[in-house]
Each structure stands twice: as C-alpha cells, then as structure tokens.
Amino acid sequence: MPEVHLEREGAVVTVVLDDARRKNAMTPELGDALAARVLELKRDPDLRAVVLTGAGDAFSAGGDLGMLERLRKSSFAEARAFMMGFYQRYLSITELQVPVIAAIRGPAIGAGLCVALASDLLVIDEEAKLGLNFVQLGLHPGMGATYLVPRRVGPQRAAELLLTGRRFGGRDAVAWGMALEALPGAEVLPRAQALAAQIAGNAPLAVRALKMELGVDRAALLAALDQEAHEQAVSYGSADLEEGLRAVVEKRKPSFSGV
C-alpha cells in the first residue's frame, strides 16, 4: 500500500509521498495517507515548516490511469463527487498553517505538479520532467490547475501550458516564476530543507500570519475545484478520454473525435 512518511529535523518535517514503484502516482490510497499525515501535523504545536517530496526518482507521475479507467464506468454524479473528495485529500496541504516547500526531483506530471504548485515555495530539479498533460489524455484539468497555474505563471503562460499539455523542464519553471530555484537533482531536497530550517528560525507568529496572507485564496481555489470536478465528470463520459487512455497504453498519438 502507498505510504506517506514523516522525517523530522527540529521544527521542520519532511513529508515523503511513497509509492515509488508507481512513481508516486496519485491514487485515493496515497491521498488518504497524505491527508492523515496533514491532520497529524496540524496538531503539532512545535511545527514551523514542512518540506513535501516524493520517494524514489519521481515527485509524482500524476493521476493513476487505472483510477481513470474505473471512473469512466461511473455515473456523472458519482465521478463528480469522487473528484471533489480526491482533490481535497491531496490539497489538504493548503490547510497547514506553516509554510510548505515542495522539493521536486524527477517527473511531476498533471495533478502531481498541481499539488506541488499548491505549496508556498518550490525548489526543483533542473532536469525535472514537468507537464500539465490533461488535454493530451482527453481530460479536463483538475486538482486546482485552473487556479494554481495562472497564479504562478500568469494567464498567458498558463493558457499555453494547459491548452497544449506540452512538457517542460525545471529551468523553464524558474524562468516563468513557477519555481524558486532549479538545482542538480541531488541538491534539491537538502536546499529545500535548509530553506525550511531558515524559515523555522524566524518568529512563528509572524511567519504563520504571512503564510495565510501569501498563500492560496481558499475560496477561489474551492470555486475552481467545483468547476473542475464538473468538467472532469463530463470528460469521464467521453469517447475522447477512452481514446486518450488507449493511446497511452498503445504508445501512440491519440486521435480525438470531440465526443
């Protein structure tokens, strides 16, 4: 079963998404484990900063394809309700009252990248493979993409990345303001942890207040999630998603019909 580990160094806790065999693909089980750890951290009076990373050689390869196949067999209402719960599991990190620094090594794709973008700061592998490839699968973006991506890179770049679904790298992410720093892979986690330790050494009341002021607008995020859940439920009933998933399995370019 997927797990989420906590590694503590003083007032800093590193949260590790651990389903390395599947490159930390986003499943309900991994989301449950993350939400449980977030609840634990919310009760920790000594916590001052969090680092979020993935086990193995990936941050997250994105949504689990098996889960998407199962959702294709669900009703519209079932799929919509499921997606809202799915988002809430992973985006529970936005409920933490201390700064969260995402440390991305290797791939961060689709919903996996969105979870990193929900953090306060992002340190990234300069060779990271990144993408918001929802439309290439025949799927409307989810996990807050329509709010989180424009918030980081502005409306024009966000539109280009979401409409094309193209891949890009860690240096691109820094150039666009999506990430703070791009470093060699081995340096990413130590740098994120050092940054978290620096933050943890500051006045906690002031830092917590800044976290609330600079962090996501939860009302705006919730509105985006509500619309995304609706549109993703529409996608699950489409022939386009069926074609997109089949193309992934067959390692070919999909041919979408718009139905």
UniProtKB/TrEMBL annotation:
Gene3D superfamilies assigned: 2-enoyl-CoA Hydratase, Chain A, domain 1 (3.90.226.10), Lyase 2-enoyl-coa Hydratase, Chain A, domain 2 (1.10.12.10)
GO molecular function: catalytic activity
PROSITE patterns membership: ENOYL_COA_HYDRATASE
Pfam families: ECH_1
Any coiled-coil regions, as ranges: none
CDD domains tied to this protein: crotonase-like (cd06558)
Family membership noted in the UniProt record: Belongs to the enoyl-CoA hydratase/isomerase family.
UniProt name for this protein: Enoyl-CoA hydratase
